[in-house]
């Protein structure tokens, strides 16, 4: 029997679909439209384009020159978007060795030296000597229970005055930020809830029916 005739081939459309499932697109800034292929690791779940676009519209007046911490980096979607839009520095943290390698290789391919990569558990990283960040991205795996611990550790010197904290989680996940963090924006997209908070804000805001804070 001809071996070539019995070999099953994956259709081109299916191969492309698999590839796109592990690919993200930078949506703004100097690398706009650039596509990045990230490792096929099940827990990686990049923030959807729609969510990232909304988030960075919120942050647009504050992103240029900011120092950012991408604490559950995964695909690096949030950190790379921040760098593309003018952040001064992004610190990527993820516990997966393959992700760390991918992040370093991607930064090298982008010829970007304004970032550091740490292959480490988020809680362990935050027990280092702290340095303050202007913007912190928290997008842990949905099944993770690390948010309460991480939020507490961030309070120990990791946040600049009036820092921004972005939290993305599964819809319905209880969000119990420290009392000094004030909700600035909160929205839902499908099964994802995403929230932008800030430290040092006066307690004058409230969440409207549209789930955005109004003054």
Automatic annotation (TrEMBL):
Matches recorded under SUPFAM superfamilies: S-adenosyl-L-methionine-dependent methyltransferases
GO terms, molecular function: 16S rRNA (guanine(966)-N(2))-methyltransferase activity
Key words of the record: Methyltransferase, rRNA processing, S-adenosyl-L-methionine, Transferase
Similarity comment: family membership: Belongs to the methyltransferase superfamily. RsmD family.
Name of the protein: Ribosomal RNA small subunit methyltransferase D
Main function: Specifically methylates the guanine in position 966 of 16S rRNA in the assembled 30S particle.
NCBIfam families assigned to the protein according to its UniProt record, in alphabetical order: 16S rRNA (guanine(966)-N(2))-methyltransferase RsmD
EC class name: transferase
Species per Swiss-Prot/TrEMBL record: Steroidobacter denitrificans
Annotated EC: 2.1.1.171
Signal sequence range: none
């Amino acid at each position: 029997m001809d071996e070539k005739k019995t070999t099953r081939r994956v259709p081109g459309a299916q191969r492309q679909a698999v590839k796109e499932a592990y690919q993200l697109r930078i949506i703004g800034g100097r690398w706009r439209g650039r596509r990045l292929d990230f490792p096929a690791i099940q827990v990686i779940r990049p923030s959807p384009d729609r969510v990232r676009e909304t988030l960075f519209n919120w942050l647009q007046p504050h992103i240029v020159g900011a120092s950012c911490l991408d604490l559950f980096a995964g695909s690096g979607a949030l950190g790379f978007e921040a760098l593309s839009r003018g952040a001064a520095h992004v610190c990527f943290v993820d516990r997966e060795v393959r992700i760390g390698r991918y992040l370093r290789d991607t930064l090298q391919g982008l010829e970007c030296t304004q970032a550091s990569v740490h292959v480490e558990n988020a809680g362990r990283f935050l027990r280092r000597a702290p340095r303050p960040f202007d913007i912190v991205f928290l997008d842990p795996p949905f099944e993770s229970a690390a948010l309460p611990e991480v939020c507490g550790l961030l309070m120990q010197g990791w946040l600049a005055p009036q820092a921004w904290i972005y939290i993305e989680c599964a819809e319905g996940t209880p969000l119990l930020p420290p009392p000094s963090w004030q909700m600035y924006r909160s929205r839902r997209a499908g099964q994802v809830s995403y929230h932008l908070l800030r430290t040092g804000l006066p307690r004058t805001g409230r969440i409207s029916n549209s789930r955005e804070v109004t003054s």
